[in-house]
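User: I'll paste a sequence; please echo it back and then give the predicted structure.

Assistant: Echoing your sequence first, then the prediction.
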Amino acid sequence: MTTAALQTVLTVPERFRGPAGVANGGWIAGTMAEALGGHRSAVEVTLHAPTPLETDLCLEHVANTVSLHEGDKLLVEAIPVAEDLTAPAFVPFNDAARAEAGFAGWRGHAFPECFACGLREPGDGLRIFPGPVEGTDLVAAGWLVPFTVAEEDGVPASVVGAALDCITGWAHFGPGESALLGRLAVQIHRRLYAGGAYSVVARATGREGRKLFGESAIYEVDGTLVAAARATWIAPREA
């Protein structure tokens, strides 16, 4: 006996791009986590191939798995994770905001149009610019959530995923350096709201060949954990 698949159509708007021409990996991860019903539980999302923009894609639910396809090509797959994700330590909002001055992307940004960390106009992109936090192994940014990314009941999981994504890369990157997101596990504990002030924090947790590992979190100003993520990035092959 086989489980019938439930299929819906997903189209990623141009606004939610990461690298030019493809979707922001964190936005896709958050979208997939929500599709799997990952409310308060962790969902691990593997990006098998870049997700194109403004294209009708097939979102398929089978048992405890959600996958995204372009025709016969598997793009993304999401599965539930049993354990809670580990979060990097809390950084107070003012300290996180001060850290932005050290953002490596100011001196060279491989993807300046990125929805999450790119140099987009206020209200268009998230403008999360993490820099090193003095005396720690963390990078952090202060995030004032724009009203243009929220819905009536708060910030959607797709946007939360985007906020948790790029910062784990910047925990590794110097100016002009980049990698592509390969996997992101996301766990959202509480709602975020437009106009709210949050600390977005990350740390590098290791490297293995071309794979870069990191973890991130979003905190309210009082230190309450809102969401956490665990990332694997794939660095480009050396010439």
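Helices lie at 25-35, 93-99, 157-170. The domain at 6-81 is CATH 3.10.129.10 (Thiol Ester Dehydrase; Chain A).
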